[in-house]
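Submission sheet (multi-component)
Chains listed below:
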Amino acid sequence: MHGPAALQLTSDGRLKHLLTTEGLQKPLITELLDTAETFLSSQGQPVKKVPLLRGKTVVNLFFENSTRTRTTFDIAAHRLSADVVTLDIRTSSASKGETLFDTLKNLEAMQADLFVVRHSAGGAPFFIANRVTPNIAVINAGDGTHAHPTQALLDLMTIRKHKGDPENLSVAIIGDLKHSRVARSLIHGLRGMSCPDIRAIGPGTLLPSDLGHLGVRTFHTTEAGLSGVDVVVLLRLQKERMSNALLPSEREFFNLYGMTEARLKLARDNAIVMHPGPINRGVEIANEVADGRQAVILDQVTNGIAIRMAVMAMTLSTQQGAHS
Amino acid sequence: MHEVRSQRATENALRNLINQVDNAYHRGTPLVVGIHTGGAWVATRLCEALQWNEPAMLDISLYRDDFETSGLKRSGTTDRMPQQLNGENILLIDDVLFTGRTIRAALNVLFDYGRPGTIDLGILFDRGGRELPIEPTFLGESLGEEGVERCKLVGPEPLALITPDS
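Outcome: structure written.
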């Protein structure tokens, strides 16, 4: 094993950090999803907390703004009985001139066991994973336009629950794939799960040029791209894409790519509609679809907690093993 | 090392356990909870024999006390439990009782579902070697004070105890 995947695995293939879905193989992804299913069932108990990570300290290192992802990591860690410290780095040391490396060494000296890292620069979690003391796990909670592996895993979990093994499915991702770490990670995850048909739908300005290398077919119209798909993944359209002149307007995008009931009929009956949130009603998705029976967007949120619990438990479990 | 597989001893112990439980619960049926996996097999046989409802099932893998040394041990199963246990009389069933740590974990899981009225413990085989103050209310068979080196129940059909050949 080499490349980005190597850093996150032990020599015998167990997960010690989660940095990217690129290069993750089906057995390991399946183990992650199965573990998350176990945690999902513990979420039905009146007491939702399990004592697995009692006494462990999880540090959320958020160099980039995020309420939603940070909250789900918080909840996941709390439900595993870990202690959680959240550092909003933008307002702390970094603004006083401390380097990332020095911040890291300080946190290590406080006996942290796991870092959850979000950073606007692609590769930052890799930098950290490369330099942390052994036995500390690092989870990438989103780095630049590079990767968002826990989002991809919760998407895979949601797909598997509703539609079965991705090995037999057609999945279409619609919108701004070019700037989307969610899309990139999901594509790698789907490839890892041997999904035979991955499609990208969007205007040329918002599709990366290297999709062909990843085995993804590109379409510029929903009419061509949605035919026969089982899973429709919508992406959030960032406002700044309009100011960058990559798109004429939100209305224009909705008219061409917005998921309406009529457009959804192009996909298979009972195709599911996913969105990483927060959704822009009337831009990527029409109200009747967002609130309709085929949308599984809130299910994704619930699965997201279970996935993050699974990733924390599995990486820390591996790190424990390295310890003994 | 040779192993001995004993189906007959297992059936005898099971009959013994079922008789004790039957005698003790003539007034009302408890909520039977089997611990995954062996305990669930024993609980199923017990409920069939006494014509009780299908037992509930607990997985204790998230409540183990050895994460520090052994890491995550996922059973691949999910609990099958009623929504709440407040005031319920519970009969907790496991196949082999050894250190008592599994039972400690199972008690913790039960209390995360509510506040049971009473909890009894039914065990098929006691192999000694206790590390916690936990004893069965009903016992199929004791394998001796000294403790048995290793043993394990295989099943579900047929149920048999596997012990090393001494």
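Remark: The first helix of chain A runs from residue 4 to 8.
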